[in-house]
UniProtKB/TrEMBL annotation:
One Pfam family it belongs to: MoCF_biosynth
Cell membrane keyword on record: no
Full protein name: Molybdopterin molybdenumtransferase
Cofactor(s), names only, from the UniProt record: Mg(2+)
Sample GO molecular function, one term: molybdopterin molybdotransferase activity
Length: 398
């Protein structure tokens, strides 16, 4: 009698379909107001408007004298930026000494810089050009102007602009929080791996990849093999209805995705009652990957332990889901592919390439267990089964 001890082979989902499922597995997180200091890298959820005009008043553009009418002018006081304004309009024939950025008194016809003025103790003379060296209220940025559109990334410069326009908080799409779980008793996290050990090569690349997709790695935790630690870590995640900023939206499980005795992901997902959306993808490398939703909300992306396979899987399931959650626009690039690459009969191939003026060229070194080829490459070429040798999609590597 034959005893069937292992799961039968199930047909894996096509790479294109898996990517579509991943992109459709999430909705963009709701907009939240975030203090400027925490908004860097987020996307604006609405247009950024000028709450105040720049400059906020008619101000001097030079250190010198604000004058009215023709010179010589009688000196009637001094106005410094941040100091008291001149107590009334300037009459023709009057001047006040003025600092750059200080509001010019009403009636000012021009500012004469120190370099162009001849000043005595009580009067000043010089050549005044009407309107010269006065920055008018709202001349740089009018009040109410939309300076950045919804969807713009909050850059360091945008933070400065927002502050100048009177904002303390920005309404942004929060960056989805990602918890990374690295499994494998043989995986070590520093130094040279000894016999029977491998150094974690996935944890170090995930933060940059996640960031480019619009997310942020909230924590990376190393778990021993076995279902209980994984079960506990997945159950402990806090759902983030409404996009709370410190929550976990996606858990990435590295390793444990295949069929070996230490590969517990599927069993744990079943025990937790997760909804498995993708269970294996027809892609090389990276076929033993999975995407599921836990009953309390977070998505789980299961990546294979082989590092290049993990990268391919992350670009297939994790990145599209994160982009959707973060509201990061999706751009698709295509190009020609040289190097005599042959398609696989059933699976999509992900081939590390460098893009050149003559098309994409494979860089080699593309074994699933090594990141060498991917590190030499600037993109992965997507070669579908039955590829006709024409253009391919190119996924840019961060
Ligand atoms: N019977 C089958 N065996 C395997 C299959 C299969 O379909 N049937 N698929 C193979 C493929 S393809 C891959 S990829 C791996 C995926 O394995 P797991 O996700 O279960 O990962 P592990 O078994 O834990 O590790 C595989 C390999 O990668 C090394 N590893 C693990 N984590 C890391 C890490 N963070 N950094 C660097 N290297 C890591 C680990 O030591 C193993 O060498 O399954 C095949 N087997
Ligand atoms: O996903 Mo595996 O070999 O395809 O590395």
């Amino acid at each position: 009698m034959t005893v069937l001890r292992h799961d039968p082979v199930v047909e894996a989902m096509s790479w294109e379909a898996a990517r579509r499922v991943a992109a459709g597995s999430a909705k963009p997180l709701g907009a939240v107001p975030v203090p400027l200091a925490e908004a860097l890298g987020c996307r604006l959820a609405g247009p950024l408007r000028a709450l105040v005009p720049v400059p906020g008043a008619d101000v001097s553009a030079m250190d010198g004298y604000a004058v009215a009418g023709d010179g010589p002018w009688r000196l009637a006081g001094r106005v410094l930026a941040g100091g008291a304004a001149h107590p009334g309009p300037l009459a023709a024939g009057e001047a006040v000494e003025i600092a750059t950025g200080a509001p010019v008194p009403e009636g000012t016809g021009a500012v004469v810089p120190y370099e162009r003025a001849m000043a005595g103790a009580e009067s000043v003379d010089g050549a005044a050009e009407p309107g010269r060296h006065i920055r008018r209220r709202g001349e740089d940025i009018p009040e109410g102007a939309v300076v950045l559109e919804a969807g713009a990334v909050v850059t360091p410069v945008a933070l400065g602009l927002a502050a100048a326009l009177g904002h303390d908080d920005l309404l942004v799409r929060p960056r989805p929080g990602v918890l990374v779980l690295i499994t494998g008793d043989e995986v070590v996290h520093k130094g040279r791996p000894g016999a029977g050990r491998v150094r974690d090569a996935i944890g170090p690349f995930l933060p940059g990849l996640v960031e480019c997709a619009g997310g942020r790695v909230a924590d990376t935790v190393h778990l021993p093999d076995g279902p209980s630690a994984l079960h506990a870590a997945l159950s402990a995640t806090t759902a983030t209805p409404g996009g709370a900023r410190d929550g976990v939206d996606v858990v990435v499980v590295c390793g444990a995705s295949s069929k070996g005795p230490a590969d517990h992901l599927r069993g744990v997902l079943a025990a937790l009652g997760a909804d498995v959306l993708v269970d294996g993808v027809a892609v090389r490398p990276g076929h033993p990957q999975a995407l599921a939703r836990l009953p309390h909300g977070p998505l789980v992306a299961g990546l294979p332990g082989n590092p290049f396979a993990a990268l391919g899987a992350a670009l297939t399931l994790l990145v599209p889901a994160l982009r959707r959650l973060a509201g990061t626009p999706v751009t698709r690039e295509t190009g020609t592919l040289g190097g005599g690459v042959r398609p696989h009969p059933r699976d999509t191939r992900l081939v590390p390439v460098r893009r050149t003026a003559g098309g994409a060229a494979p860089v080699g070194h593309d074994r699933p267990g090594s990141l060498w080829g991917a590190a030499l490459a600037d993109a992965l070429a997507v070669v579908p089964p039955g590829w006709d040798g024409e253009r391919v999609e190119l996924i840019e590597l961060p």
